[in-house]
Design brief:
The structure is a single chain. This protein has 5 helices and 8 strands. It is an alpha/beta fold. The relative contact order is 0.22.
């Protein structure tokens, strides 16, 4: 299997993440005394192969095809074997994204799914950034967004370079992995550590 890992001024391989424990001051809990230095690992996952638009009345109704379901399950199993875990998955409300997220959940990659309109087609990254700022307070360190192209590719570009360039493409059931900074806005300050199409994860 070959997975692309990047090491350049804009893109770098994820470092180990650590926790630094400071001596507690009187009246402070152990939880607040911990300096969490781990950066967030964000996985942008496109839904699996879905039915053609002309087969359904609305885009929201399009499910994964049998092939899409089969391949997505194999990819989910491979991710599990690679010991990838998500503290939370945010999934588009569209059926094909919800089905993809459920497959990842069933494979043991996460125990939580939340539906989010922000990751639906033409979703607003600004809405997600406001949500993300609050989510950071939970001290969770791994997040997956299960959504659509070109939105996920454009979001990755915005997080990496501060603007969308319409150049990053995530294939169906493909993944982009980003490392987000510990503090402040991740826009233009994130790093890529993973870019892989589904064929590199299939046996």
């Amino acid at each position: 299997m070959s997975i692309q890992l990047y090491n350049s001024p804009e893109m770098s391989i994820a470092p180990n993440f650590t926790h630094r424990v400071r001596r507690r001051k009187p009246g402070r809990s152990h939880r607040t005394a911990i300096k969490r230095t781990a950066r967030v690992h964000l996985y942008l996952i496109r839904h699996g192969i879905a039915a053609e638009p002309e087969e359904y009345d609305t885009d929201e109704e399009r499910p994964l095809t049998k092939e899409g379901d089969r391949k997505t399950r194999k990819i989910a199993q491979r991710l599990y074997e690679l010991e990838i875990q998500f503290d939370l998955m945010l999934a588009s409300p569209l059926l094909r994204a919800q089905q993809t997220a459920q497959i990842l959940l069933a494979a043991g990659l996460s125990s939580q799914i939340e539906e989010s309109a922000a990751v639906a087609p033409s979703g607003d990254i600004g809405d997600w950034l406001r949500w993300y700022k609050q989510w950071q307070e939970t001290a969770s360190r791994s997040l997956a967004l299960v959504g659509h192209q070109p939105d996920l590719g454009n979001w990755a570009e915005t997080l990496l370079w501060g603007r969308s360039q319409d150049s990053l493409i995530i294939k169906k059931a493909g993944i982009i992995g980003l490392i987000l900074p510990e503090t402040g806005s991740p826009v233009g300050r994130s790093q890529m550590f993973l870019l892989t199409g589904p064929k590199f994860l299939l046996p």
